[in-house]
Design goal:
eight-stranded antiparallel β-sheet, single chain, Four Helix Bundle (Hemerythrin (Met), subunit A), 53% helix, Beta Polymerase, domain 2, 4 domains
């Protein structure tokens, strides 16, 4: 047998042994070292002034069966050097992929200044043959020695930036079903990056990493991923680091014999989380070396943990790693109540709560919320449409909904952003998004039905009321219904729209289902927009949504029928006269149950000087504030809206209707503050505001810079609606105190509002006012018209305000 034949047999045996786990990656590197040294010495590279150096993974002795062999041929000058091809040709004959370069120390300096890959490769340089002093001079010229230096710190900064770029490109190994075990977030490259940063700071990674808090787990994870990578090369018969579906079973037979492929993937995910924790520990300390780990001290009580973990009302960064470390170190009887309280509050707040669920997923703490969530975090749906585990897909779906609801996708998805912004109870959709695929862990054949029960239980666990939890379960049970209709039938067909309407039952549920469908489809793959959510899918689903909304459940009732039903509901002897006085617009626009309350309040109103107020708090949805003012002063509208704003209510819709007898009906639909004030406090504040006279001057507050990031066009128009009133339409960005500022501006102008309709969709507010001048007529004259429009623009552009 020839020398090359003997080497080939030895290499093949080492590769098989590495794939089967009988030797470690260093064993294959030892075989290569003997081959390269023999070839280099035969070619004369062992003499002074010459050196052959192993770089990269070969330099680290971190080899896989099909890894590249990176060599640096170092010489004093470019003339008179030994033959490089005498070393390379036999290696190529062995079927090796050889990366090589012939350089002088000065060349090393020039290349390291412009090429990060070449610079970091020098950090792993290992002499195979030749002059050690020449290698030392080359490292000094490149800036790789001594360490730390200004150049190595620059390399470290570049490595930190590169990790973020790779995370965006390759996704997170810890959640993907087809992870890139080398380049993905939490993959082998992140372990290498942590070593490079430490080396650039003048530390020895082999001594430093085991001392870090996450070091032992990360080293164990890196060894396991290296084993998986070796088996993957053997199973594929080529160099690949992408663990795709077709390689799961052959790799599992080599790495986890006797276990299903799902166990292999679960161990890969755990290994990646350990490596990711190591990288975060190193990166968070940079540019300083990471400190010596101190065991975290757990919280002593659930209340202390809740205070430390509270989600801020207007959003903010991800949860503090220090607080999460303390939470993980706390006993279960402290940890679980605190988590449930914090997450339950966060679901109802306008904050990116998905960041918290993602942090709990990464730290394997979701089991404290619900054991099924922990099980789902490792569950593998063998479905080509999904790239995440079941649990990770739920968290990504929650993130997709949060981005939609918080207005981050206004430019890309304007229609869905408006639909999501108009949801009465977005926290129900949040629970449905998180739980919609949990049924795959219970009954893969009918996961929607099984998931509905899981969503109901999870909703109750997170603080939803029983009706809200039931609605979340219904959304999960129906979450495939609209996409299936849109994809399998013509969404423009009236029969398809009627079927969609029959499935949803209400406009609110129809909106929730289309938003949930987006969250599901947009979260199947990494990136801001999933591979499943395509323009074609968007067009079909939104066409069905629009068509279904235009399909009424039943023919609308006539005005006469509505008055008969209202009179029957009231049942008073004088109901006929009261019902006859209800303005037509109020009769058609206000729900019958609320209108019944308003009419009953009108019958009692003459005995009240400050008006009557009722607060309706339904089991699901926003709060309804109803008011009847028998003798309304000009400032009644601005006083009421200012009082609600001071109490922390977010007015999402508002109507006002003037009766012929002179009384005024007000209807506010609001999202309450957290915690909501008592009903008696709301009534008292409204009555006091009405009796206190014209509201005082406004005190400016700082603007919300986060909300201003999404552009919303401002439009103000004033037209004649009838001979006795003008119509003022205002479209602008919604903000706290907007309604109070607009009504105060109309009050300052001496205008009387006879009817109003205020709606909010996402970041946009649309307000329509029917107004009269002091003489009870419409606004005539271009000067008066311009004065009104300018004053309204001034109220819109002023800083958010509150009544003093």
């Amino acid at each position: 047998m020839t020398r090359v034949g003997a080497w080939k047999a030895e290499l093949d045996g080492a590769r098989r042994a590495l794939a089967e786990g009988r030797i470690d990656p260093g064993g294959l590197a030892d075989v290569l070292d003997r081959i390269v040294r023999e070839l280099a010495e035969d070619a004369g590279w062992h003499r002074p002034g010459r050196a052959v150096v192993a770089l990269g993974g070969y330099g680290r002795r971190d080899m896989a069966p099909r890894s590249d062999v990176d060599l640096l041929f170092l010489t004093e000058r470019h003339r008179g050097e030994p033959d490089v091809e005498a070393v390379l040709y036999p290696l190529w004959d062995l079927g090796l992929e050889v990366g090589h370069a012939l350089r002088t120390p000065r060349d090393c300096r020039d290349v390291a200044r412009t090429d990060l890959t070449a610079a970091t490769a020098l950090l792993d340089a290992r002499l195979l043959c030749g002059d050690p002093d020449l290698l030392a001079r080359g490292l000094r010229a490149a800036g790789a020695a001594p360490r730390p230096s200004r150049r190595t710190r620059a390399w470290a900064r570049a490595v930190v930036a590169d990790v973020g770029t790779r995370r965006t490109r390759f996704g997170e190994v810890s959640h993907l079903l087809e992870p890139h075990v080398k380049e993905g977030w939490g993959g082998l490259r992140d372990a290498h990056a942590a070593s490079w940063v430490l080396a650039c700071l003048g530390l020895d990674p082999r001594q430093e990493i085991p001392r870090l808090a996450s070091g032992p787990r990360a080293l164990e994870g890196a060894r396991f991923l290296a084993r998986v990578r070796a088996a993957l090369h053997a199973a594929a018969g080529r160099k690949t680091d992408h663990l795709t579906f077709e390689h799961h079973e052959p790799v599992a037979r080599l790495v986890t014999p006797g276990f299903p492929p799902g166990e292999l993937l679960a161990r890969v995910h755990r290994a990646a989380r350990g490596i990711a924790a190591l990288w975060e520990e190193v990166a968070q300390a940079f540019p300083r070396p990471p400190g010596r780990p101190r065991p975290p001290t757990g919280f002593s009580s659930a209340e202390e943990a809740r205070t430390a973990l509270s989600i801020r009302r207007r959003g903010g960064p991800a949860p503090s790693p220090i607080a999460l470390d303390r939470l993980a170190a706390s006993p279960g009887e402290v940890r679980r109540p605190a988590l449930l309280r914090v997450l339950g509050e966060g679901l109802r707040r306008r904050a990116p709560v998905h960041l918290w669920f993602r942090a709990l997923l990464d730290r394997e703490l979701l089991g404290d919320v619900d054991p099924l969530l922990a099980r789902a975090a490792e569950a593998v749906p063998y479905d080509a449409r999904h790239a995440f585990t079941v649990g990770a897909h739920g968290v990504e779906s929650l993130a997709a909904f949060d981005r939609l609801w918080l207005g981050a996708l206004e430019d890309r998805e304007p229609w869905l952003t408006r639909v999501a912004g108009g949801l009465a109870a977005p926290w129900i959709v949040r629970v449905a998004a998180l739980a919609h695929d949990l049924g795959k862990c219970l009954d893969p054949d009918d996961h929607a039905r099984a998931g509905a029960a899981a969503a109901r239980r999870l909703g109750l666990t997170l603080g939803l009321s029983p009706p809200e939890a039931e609605e979340a379960a219904r959304l999960v049970a129906l979450h495939h219904a609209l996409p299936r209709l849109a994809f399998r039938q013509d969404p423009e067909d009236p029969r398809t729209a009627a079927e969609a309407w029959e499935i949803a039952g209400t406009p609110e549920r129809l909106d929730a289902l289309v938003v949930l469908a987006y969250a599901d489809l947009a979260a199947t793959h990494p990136g801001p927009v999933g591979a499943t959510w395509t323009p074609w899918v968007r067009g079909l689903l939104l066409a069905l949504h629009a068509r279904a909304h235009a399909t009424p459940a039943a023919p609308p009732l006539s005005e006469a029928d509505l008055r008969k039903r209202l009179a029957a509901r009231i049942g008073r002897p004088d109901a006929g006269s009261l019902v006859h006085e209800v303005p037509r617009a109020e009769l058609l626009q206000v729900p019958l149950d609320l209108l019944e309350r308003l009419v009953r309040m009108t019958a009692r109103a003459p005995s009240s000087d400050d008006g009557l107020w009722e607060v309706v708090t339904p089991a699901t949805g926003p709060v309804e504030v109803l008011g009847v003012i028998p003798h309304p002063p000009p400032w009644a509208l601005s006083a009421a809206s200012s009082a609600l704003s001071r109490l922390g209510f977010d007015v999402r819709m508002f109507q006002v209707h003037a009766w012929s007898r002179g009384c005024l009906h007000l209807w506010f639909r609001c999202l309450p503050p957290d915690p909501p004030p008592p009903v008696s406090r709301v009534r008292q504040a409204l009555a006091q505001a009405l009796g206190a006279g014209r509201p005082g001057p406004r005190r400016p507050r700082l603007p919300d810079r986060r909300a201003e990031a999404t552009p919303v066009a401002t439009r103000v128009s004033l037209t004649h609606g009838s001979p006795v009133h003008s119509i003022l339409e205002v479209v602008c960005r919604d903000r706290a105190g907007l309604l109070a500022d607009l009504t105060a501006a109309l009050d300052d102008l001496g205008l009387r509002v006879t009817q109003a309709l205020v709606t909010t969709q996402g970041p946009q507010a649309r307000d329509v006012f029917h107004v009269q001048d002091l003489l009870g007529g419409r606004i005539e004259g271009e000067d008066k018209r311009r004065k009104v429009i300018d004053r309204v623009h001034e109220a819109i552009s002023s800083l958010p305000s509150e009544r003093s």
